[in-house]
Structure formats: structure tokens, C-alpha cells
Design brief:
The protein is about 25% helix and about 35% strand. The chain is α+β, with helices and mostly antiparallel strands and about 425 residues long. It has three domains: about 70 residues, Jelly Rolls, CATH 2.60.120; about 200 residues, P-loop containing nucleotide triphosphate hydrolases (Rossmann fold), CATH 3.40.50.300; about 150 residues, 2-Layer Sandwich (GMP Synthetase, Chain A, domain 3). The strands form five sheets. The protein has a seven-stranded mixed beta sheet, sandwiched between helices. Strands 17, 18, 23, 24, 25, 26 and 27 form a seven-stranded mixed beta sheet that branches.
Length: about 425
């Protein structure tokens, strides 16, 4: 890591790309509306950037990693349109509910951070509802969350986590109902907390039927006072057109900031995996009885154990030994001893033979690595876990988790991780 001193002239803007740390030695700087104090240090993680604006001639000490950069920007970090738009929003008075739409790499999080600082400056009680389970800021990926912002921040991950809701994957595709329901629950909590200015950040998924349904669902459930479109041209206009003349929400448009750093898929993956690794750093294997702890988002445990006769029928159709099986009015869940080449074909055979709507055939050990949400009596998310093993006959489940208390429900996600937090696979359909 190299050390250097950089002089930033008054009125100019610089962008620092991590991994790096910055310490203000002289002068006065602002980061997205946050005043930086003399001798204050700021950290910029890998795959992130931080814009600096010099209020006075300033000197900073930079400790930079091998991939870090610090370079001047040709224009101001905060576009003039951002100032005007946020002045308009603040002028409307509390309560404020500001939802933000934008494509991938449009700078939604940057705008929301600046908006949060302007709200703090205006004296509001500020909250952020992070509705992006992929590039989660307030909590861990695979969740959406509510955070409280009590002072100026350089990024939304500085918000104080209030509550979270488990989605189970890093993309809302196919899980839009969970995102909408979770967002509504977290929104109601923000209201109970007395949040006067709530920022609702959304994912960069903006095209296709699912994206349209998700954004319309969020607008209908949360009823924002303002909808901000961040766009280079008209790329998210289609999501707002039904609301152009809708008096209950004011639609506002702002351009993308020059400070925005386009992130590759690799950068996004690394950011997620660092978050998993940090969260599970002190996790331990803990075992739960499925006789007292419920499973959700699975076929397993929702039916009744197969009779010996039914098990024999299934084995005859599949030509495989069945180590465990369940059957419900619309479902069949089958566990075989070893991996099979085509589980979809096996499931189809059983659907046709027994007239079931939902059939899942998996092998022993297929559950290992699935992420899970641990739910308490009040339906709150207590923490996350990674499934290590299920004993189907004994009805026990072992998870790697930092949470130590009692759990009422285990929600099984569709993402698989290893113990180092690396993403292995997304499971389409029923995970168990």
C-alpha cells in the first residue's frame, strides 16, 4: 500500500477508487453533503468509489492499495439538478417518502446518500428502506432492510440497522411478492419509529414484465410522496408513465452524476461475498429440531411421511432407492441416496404417475450451502444461516450461523454459498 499527499484546489472535485483510506490534513472537504473534519479518516473499500469536493484549498493523505485511484473530475460531483430537486422535495415538508428508480450503475445509492445528508441538514428524522437484495447496503445480500440515519454519512452502509426481511436470493426475479411484502412490513415499522423522511432505494432491475410488476407493486404498497428517476436518457421512463398525472406522487427526474463508477459483475460479486464473509466470520454450527422449528419456502415438512407401499411405488418408477419421502395433497418430496443425472425428468415421471402439481426429487446432501433466514416469534428476522446438513428421518437441521437464540421458523433461500461466502449457485424453483 502506497502513501501520498494530494492537494485539492478549492471548488474542484476528485474521485477516489478503493481500496484506499483518506485523511484530511488541511482545508475543508465535503463528501456527498457530509462535511469532513480535520484529521478525520475515510475508508473506501474495493469496488467502491468516494467523491471529494473541496470547499477550501485542501490537503489529504491517501493510503492506496494496488487497484486504488485518485483522479480529478471534470465536473461537480453533485449535478445542479440534484440540488434543485432535493430543495423541492424538502420544501414539501414532512412526512417525506422518496422512492428512487434507476438502471444499473445510474448512481441510485450515491443519490440516496446525498439525499440522506440533505435531510439530516434539514433536521428530519431520517430512515432508508433498502429494497435491493443484490447490492444490499444496510444489511447482508439476500435481504431487504430498514436503517436509521442519525448523522451525516459517506454511504448507506453507515445506517443503523433497525430491521430486515429475508428474500433468499440476490435477484428479485421470481420473488417479487417477497420484496413487496417485506418492503410494506419495513415501511410500517419506519412509520412506527416516527421517521419523517424515508428514502426508498430500489434495485437496478428495470426492464421486463417482472421488473414492471415489482416497481408497480412497490409504488402501490408504499405510496411515496415523490418518485425520483435517475437516468442518462429515458431508460426508466416506462416505469413512471402511469403516475405522470397522479396527484399523490410527484415524479421528478435527475441526471447521472459524473462521479458514478461503473461496476463490473465481478465487482458486484466481490462486494456481496465480502458482506457474507464478514457476517459469518464468527458463526458456529447449530442444530435445530424440525418438530419445534418450522420450515418455510420448502416442500419438505409440509406433507406427511410416505407409507412403505407408496415409497416402493416411487422406487419402482425411478429405479432408485428412496431414503425419505413425503406426500401432500398437491406435492411430493423425494430424497434419494446419490445425485441423479436428471432430477427434472424424475419429477415429471412422478407428477404424471400420481397427479401432483409440485414434485421435487433431490439427493442426500443437496441442501448443503443453502442460505436461510432465521425468524423469531414476532415474525422478525433474527439472523442468517447456511445449511450444513439435514437429517430427514430424524427431522433435524444443522446450520452455520452467528445467531445463538431460539428460532421459530427457518426460511430456506435459493442461493448456495460455501463457508468462505463464495456464491456457488442459484436454485430455480423449490430449494427443498
Amino acid at each position: 500500500m502506497s502513501n501520498s499527499r494530494v492537494t485539492i484546489p478549492k471548488g474542484s472535485s476528485y474521485k477516489v477508487e478503493g481500496p484506499a483510506s483518506i485523511r484530511l490534513l488541511e482545508g475543508s472537504l465535503s463528501v456527498l453533503g457530509k462535511p469532513v473534519k480535520i484529521k478525520e479518516s475515510l475508508t473506501v473499500p474495493r469496488s467502491r468509489s468516494l467523491p471529494l469536493e473541496a470547499i477550501e484549498n485542501s490537503v489529504v493523505e491517501v493510503k492506496a492499495g494496488p487497484e486504488a485511484k485518485i483522479e480529478p473530475l471534470s465536473s461537480a460531483t453533485i449535478p445542479r439538478e440534484w440540488y434543485i430537486t432535493i430543495d423541492r422535495i424538502i420544501g414539501a415538508g414532512a412526512p417525506l417518502r422518496v422512492m428512487v428508480f434507476g438502471d444499473i450503475d445510474s448512481g441510485k445509492t450515491t443519490f440516496c446518500t446525498y439525499l440522506a445528508n440533505r435531510f439530516i441538514e434539514a433536521g428530519f428524522k431520517v430512515g432508508v428502506l433498502d429494497c435491493d437484495p443484490g447490492q444490499a447496503e444496510v444489511f447482508v445480500p439476500t435481504t431487504i432492510s430498514l436503517g436509521l440515519i442519525k448523522d451525516y454519512v459517506t454511504s448507506l452502509d453507515k445506517a443503523v440497522l433497525k430491521s430486515a426481511y429475508f428474500i433468499g436470493a440476490t435477484s428479485p426475479s421470481g420473488l417479487t411478492d417477497r420484496v413487496i411484502v417485506g418492503a410494506k412490513i419495513l415501511f410500517e415499522e419506519a412509520v412506527r419509529e416516527g421517521v419523517e423522511a424515508l428514502i426508498i432505494n430500489t434495485s437496478g432491475w428495470t426492464t421486463g414484465r417482472g421488473a414492471r410488476f415489482l416497481k408497480a407493486g412497490l409504488l402501490g404498497a408504499l405510496k411515496p410522496s415523490h418518485l425520483v428517476l435517475i437516468q442518462r436518457s429515458t431508460e426508466v421512463e416506462h416505469l413512471a408513465k402511469p403516475y405522470i398525472n397522479f396527484k399523490e406522487v410527484e415524479v421528478l427526474r435527475v441526471p447521472v452524476s459524473s462521479a458514478i463508477k461503473a461496476r463490473s459483475k465481478e465487482d458486484r460479486r466481490v462486494k456481496r461475498e465480502l458482506a457474507y464473509k464478514g457476517y459469518f466470520a464468527r458463526a458456529k454450527i447449530r442444530k435445530y429440531s424440525l418438530d419445534v422449528t418450522g420450515l418455510m419456502y420448502t416442500l419438505y415438512t409440509t406433507g406427511f411421511k410416505m407409507s412403505k407401499e407408496r415409497k416402493s411405488e416411487v422406487e419402482s418408477i425411478l429405479g432408485l432407492e428412496v431414503i425419505y419421502g413425503e406426500e401432500g395433497p398437491d406435492s411430493m418430496f423425494v430424497v434419494v441416496d446419490k445425485p441423479i443425472s436428471n432430477s427434472s425428468e424424475a419429477a415429471l415421471k412422478l407428477k404424471e404417475a400420481f397427479g401432483k402439481e409440485e414434485v421435487l426429487v433431490i439427493h442426500r446432501g443437496a441442501e448443503k450451502g443453502l442460505i436461510a433466514g432465521l425468524i423469531g416469534q414476532a415474525s422478525t428476522l433474527l439472523g442468517l444461516g447456511i445449511i450444513e446438513e439435514i437429517d430427514y428421518e430424524e427431522r433435524t437441521i444443522s446450520l452455520l450461523t452467528p445467531f445463538e437464540g431460539q428460532v421459530s421458523i427457518i426460511q430456506v433461500g435459493q442461493l448456495k454459498l460455501d463457508e468462505e461466502g463464495r456464491e456457488l449457485a442459484k436454485i430455480e424453483g423449490w430449494p427443498l
